[in-house]
Each structure stands twice: as structure tokens, then as C-alpha cells.
Design a protein that fits this description.
about 240 residues; Purple Acid Phosphatase, chain A, domain 2; about 25% strand
């Protein structure tokens, strides 16, 4: 039975990792792949992600939806959806969780991705996030039927209480997932930290801006056991 490996990166801000095509596992990038949600950034990402052959899972961040992460653009959101559909057959603007199941019987891994972005034109709340009542209900249903080790990923930091960057319904999210997931992944604040143990979740990983930090978190699941190690990543 083969171990399942998943590499967590976040907040690339249009900087591209080197050598990921040779990485022997799944890759998840929890938002802010771009800096301004510009069309040329998405064209560059499409050329980069294409050779990864369906092994990458991307989740939108506030910078992917508009200039500087503060000015929402429907065109940018649609461009992210177009890229996401090509690499993983999932649309995000409908705020529906993405679910992927990896591994073999006895070593299943269920990855659930959430869209935590606010699609608003106000510069005062756009960098904030919200899961939303409908998406929370869908998440509850997905967790009830999820197999094996459960990994939940989103962009916004659920423990950062800021008037401009907070996840507005973080309390509702954490109450729902308490004791129900094994790994929680996010970025947004450019902080590297492990909040593991909070809310009955063994591993809670906040990712730094990886193009600055130069490494990601490798999650290995072997016979249902989870280990976390640092994985060096170089950037263009």
C-alpha cells in the first residue's frame, strides 16, 4: 500500500515554483496564485500548471479575484474558474466545495477545498473572507460521507481577527469541523504556524508566502497516520 503525499503551498503572488512536475505527489495551492487577477498572470499560470497533469488542486484567494486583493473583478473571478476547470474540473464562483479522494482502500485521503473569498465591490471588506451558510451546509454533508483521513483547505486564516483580513464566519466553520477533520490548511496572512490541537484537529497549518519562505509543508498519509515535514521549493 503506497503512502499518499500532498504538498501544501500558498500565496505565490505570481511567482512560480521550479521542479514541481517531478514532485511525486499531489499539490494544493491555497490561494493568491496571482497578485492582481490579471489576464497575463492567468495565461502564465496555465502554461505552468499544464505539465502537472491533473496533480494540482488550486483554491482561490482574494488577490486572484481582483487588483491588490481589494478590488473585486468578475472577469478575474471568471478567469480563475476557467483555469480551475481546465486543471481540476471545478468551478469556484458558485461556492461549492471541491472534493477529491486519493489513495487505496485502507489508506484513503479525502481533500475538501472551500472558496472563502467575498465577491464584493467594497474595498473595506474584500480582503475579508466568508464561507457562507450554503457552502457550510454542503461541507457538513461532505464530511459526513468522507473517507479516511480528511484534509480541509481554504485561503483565509480562521484565527486572525482583523477588521480587514478576517474570516467573518470563522466561528461557525470551526464549530462545524471540530473533531471532524485531521488536517486544516490555509494561507492569506503569510504566516507559517501550526495550530494543531485546537478544536480537536491534530494538524492545522498556516502557510507562509511560499515564494519568500522557499518551502512548503509535505503531508504524508501512510496507513491512516499523518506526518508533516518541510519540503524545499525553489521559485522563478
Amino acid at each position: 500500500m503506497s503512502a499518499v503525499k500532498l504538498l501544501h503551498l500558498s500565496d505565490l503572488h505570481s511567482h512560480l515554483p521550479k521542479g514541481l512536475e517531478a514532485y511525486g505527489g499531489r499539490i494544493i495551492i491555497t490561494g493568491d496564485l496571482t497578485d492582481d487577477g490579471a489576464s497575463f498572470e492567468y495565461r502564465r499560470l496555465e502554461r505552468f500548471l499544464g505539465p502537472l497533469d491533473g496533480r494540482v488542486n488550486i483554491i482561490p484567494g482574494n488577490h486572484d479575484y481582483g487588483v491588490r486583493g481589494n478590488f473585486f473583478s468578475a472577469d478575474s473571478a471568471d478567469a480563475f474558474d476557467a483555469l480551475s476547470w481546465r486543471v481540476q474540473d471545478h468551478l469556484w464562483t458558485v461556492k461549492k466545495p471541491m472534493v477529491r479522494v486519493f489513495g487505496e482502500p485502507g489508506n484513503r485521503v479525502t481533500l475538501i477545498g472551500l472558496n472563502s473569498c467575498l465577491m464584493t465591490e467594497s474595498i473595506w471588506d474584500y480582503a475579508q473572507g466568508e464561507i457562507g451558510r450554503a457552502q457550510l451546509a454542503m461541507l457538513d454533508a461532505e464530511l459526513n460521507r468522507a473517507e479516511g483521513v480528511k484534509i480541509l483547505a481554504l485561503h483565509h486564516h480562521p484565527f486572525f481577527d482583523s477588521p480587514t483580513m478576517r474570516l467573518t464566519d470563522a466561528d461557525k466553520l470551526m464549530a462545524m469541523i471540530a473533531g471532524r477533520v485531521d488536517v486544516l490548511l490555509f494561507g492569506h496572512r503569510h504566516e507559517e504556524a501550526n495550530y494543531g490541537g485546537k478544536h480537536g484537529i491534530p494538524h492545522i497549518l498556516a502557510a507562509p508566502a511560499n515564494w519568500i519562505a522557499g518551502h512548503g509543508a509535505e503531508i504524508t498519509v501512510d496507513k491512516g497516520q499523518v506526518t508533516i515535514t518541510r519540503h524545499p521549493v525553489r521559485f522563478y
